Each structure stands twice: as C-alpha cells, then as structure tokens.
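Q: Convert this sequence to structure tokens.
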Amino acid sequence: MGRNTKLKIKKPRKLRYISSKPFFSNKEIIFRSGGRAKVFNISSRLQIFALIFVVLIGVWSTYSYHIYHKSDKLMSKLDHTRDAYADLMSDFVAVHKNINSLFAMLADENVDNESDLNRYKQQVQVMEDKIKQITDNEDWLKNEGLDQNMTVREAILERDRVLSERAILLSKIQQLESSVQKLEISEMEILNKVAKISEVETQKIKDALSNINKSIKNQNKYYNPLAGGKKDSSGGAFEPAPEVDNEKLSQKMRDVFSQIDDLSYYRDVMRSVPTGKPVWNYHVSSPFGYRADPFNKQSATHKGVDLASNQGNIIKVMADGKVTRNEWVNGYGNLIEIDHENGFKTKYAHLNKSYVTKGQTVTKGDQIAEVGSTGRSTGPHLHYEVIYNGVNVDQMAFITAFNKQ
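A:
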C-alpha cells in the first residue's frame, strides 16, 4: 500500500428507529358522508380521562352490585327461605301421606298391574330421598319441625274457627236468654191462670160436696171424698222433671201441679157421686120426706123426689156405676137401680122404657130410660131416689149441688 492513497472510510449510516406511537396518542376520527369528510380529533388527555371514568363506573357498579344485590339475597334468604322450604316440605309431607294412603287403598283393592304400582312407589321414594338429601344439613327442616309447623298452622286455623264459632254462639246464647226470660214471664202468667182455674173448679166441687153432706148429715151420715187414702195412692218409676233455674217459676210449677192433681182427684171422685139433673125438663111434684099420699091423702113418708116431666123424656144416669136391678116392682112400676160402688145407689121408677140391662156398666151421662107412669102413679114423672150406705137422703141436694154457689 505504498501509494498515498486515502482510504475512504464510510461512516456508518444512522439507523432510523421506527418507534410505535403511544396508546393515548392523538386520534382522529373521520366521518365521511355525501362525499364530504369530517375529522374529529381526540386528544390523549381526553382519552385518559374517559378511561378513568369508565373504570370508576365499573368499580362502583361492581361494588354496588356486590353490596346491594348480595345483601338483598342474603336478607331474602334469611327472611323467606325457611318459610318457603317449610311450606314446600309441608306440602310434600301432605302429598306423601296422601300417596301412601292411595297405595294402601290400591293394595287393598288388589290392583292387577302390580309393576306399575311398584314403579310409582319407586318414583315417589326417589323424590323423597332427593328432598331429604337437600334438607339433611338444615336442622330446622327436620320432620319434627315440619310436623310442629303443620300442627301450629292447624292449631291457628282451629283457634280462629273456634273464636268465630264462639262469637256466633255467644250471640245466639244472648238471644236465647232473652227468649227464655220472655217465655218465663209468659209461663208465669199461664201458670197463674191455670192455678186460678184449678182453684175455682176445685172449690166448686168442694162446695157441692159440702151441700151434699148437709143433706147426708140429717141422716147421721157423712161422705168423705178422701176416705181410704185414695188421694195419696200413687206410684211408678221415678222420672225426674226438667230442672228450672228460675226458683220462683219452679215453685209456682210445683204449686200448680199440686192444684191440678187435687182437681183431677176431686173430678174422679165426683164421677161416682150422683150429682145433677137426671131429667132435663121437670118440676118437683112431690118432695123428699113427709107428704100427703097422692091417692088417699094420708100422711106418708116419701123416700124419693117426684120430678114431673113429659112421657118419653130421656132419663140419664148421674154417676158411673153398675145396673143391679132392672125389673117391675109393685108401687114403683118399671124400676132401675144402679150401684155407684162408693156407698151411693140411685133408683129410677115409673119408667116407660128401659135402655139398659142388669149387670151393665154405665157411665155418667148415659141414657138409661124414658119418663113414664107405670106402677102406682097419677101421671108421667120420674121417681128418683139417692141412697147412701143404705139410708135415703134428700135428692134435691144432689140435683142442685152445683147450683148453690
């Protein structure tokens, strides 16, 4: 290299580095429309601000969702999950019981397709196992709790029903009590009227008996309607009467019943005592006792009373009794005698026609004969006698016994 040559050393070229543009570099957005273009510049600062805003919104939304939504779920679960599961299990228990009952009924009826029945049982068992699996970890969903829940519900429903019925019953009781009070007042008024009627009727009978005894006493006799203790003769099984809370009303009832018993007894007694008119239309043509004989005008004793009446008029018996004579008797003509079986006898003479036979039982008011003029008689009339214990007594006391009040 002896030559003076100059070596030309080439300078290395400067490498041109192509650096990437920053992410938040200025951006241009071009909109073309109708052959025109519009350019919008977005600075890096605006891009950073927008990003920060979006991030903040996202963070706030996430936080709010987490706090609000999750909390709401938790509260809802706390407030409603237990009741929901309890209701579900209650319904399941009820359905399960019904299904078991259905299976039992189908088994009793010997269902032909037994395989279908078993399949249904297996399906139910699977469903029951799954529900139990879900609820095994929850103590409050145990069967005892469910039974208690159902029992409480039923008790609440039963309580409400009982309270409703109790209110209705109380209202009805008040109405009944008011009605009972009104009825008791009415009953007291009725009892007072019945007592008054019984008292008046009983007194009439006693007065009649008193008039009869005045006549009987003249013959040294006395008729006692209570003789023999028949009034107190009674018996029978004990049947307690309904209790009455109103003591005043109860006492009044006892008094009235006693008065009615007395009246009933005296009425029964009087059915065998010959009182009343044996013939409806009459006039006394010859009284009881001493008189002038109608044929010879001499003084005579008359054992009966002559009741003048039209021939054929009906004669009725004035007390229950039995016919002991039905025959022709000298002086009496056609005669009927009836024994009243309590010391009293009656005779009916001068009859035109007889309707009864000897031995026949008669009842007070029965028709026994017709007025006539048979035997020793001056005209149609009824010769009527009343005999007590073998002694003739004044018949007019018996005929008018209830007229002298």
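Residues 195-231+245-270 form one domain.
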